Amino acid sequence: GWEPDDKHNMAVERTLSIIKPDGVEKNKIGNILARFESAGLRIAALKMAHLSRAEAEGFYYVHKARPFFGELTEFMSRGPVVISVLEGADAVAKNRELMGATDPAKAAPGTIRKDLATSVGENTVHGSDSAENAAWEIAYFFAGSELT
Ligand code: GDP
Ligand code: MG
């Protein structure tokens, strides 16, 4: 029978998702949001925004020292994005599973990045990598009153 344990506690979590500029440019907003909903994730907050370079740099601050930081923040600020908070059991891991590997060429079949992305730089979606980082990322884009 089912028993809770530390590895599979199925905690109800929230995670931050961004449909990156390439996904919006390709008209894939509905396609991607439908994947989240079909997987049982609830959209708890949603907005469209065109990030400034400074906003993109602030969001990706942890990658500041990486060689691709300039390319990444230029890309993330080149056009509108769709930012959402996804809620559900194991939302962080579930979203990462739906996204696929960072490099679309290495992403599993049926994942967003395998199906829609073109390169490691333009890989269509962002997703938080831990519940702790999700809390910081959600607060970066949403006021408490915008979460439902
Ligand atoms: P993620 O968590 O799967 O999104 O991957 P990371 O946290 O490691 O990297 C953040 C983002 O930086 C990725 O989604 C890519 O958009 C970008 N990125 C990572 N590696 C590279 C790279 O080698 N070149 C470029 N241009 N972008 C990269
Ligand atoms: Mg990451």
UniProtKB/TrEMBL annotation:
The chain holds residues 251 to 398 of 398 of the full protein. It comes from Potamilus streckersoni. One of its GO terms (molecular function) is metal ion binding. GO terms for biological process: CTP biosynthetic process; GTP biosynthetic process; UTP biosynthetic process. The keyword Cytoplasm applies. GO terms for cellular component: cytoplasm. This is nucleoside-diphosphate kinase. It is found in: Cytoplasm. Belongs to the NDK family. ATP binds at residues 20, 68, 96, 102, 113, 123. The active site is at residue 126. Keywords: ATP-binding, Cytoplasm, Kinase, Magnesium, Metal-binding, Nucleotide-binding, Phosphoprotein, Signal, Transferase. Residues 12-148 form the Nucleoside diphosphate kinase-like domain. The keyword ATP-binding applies.
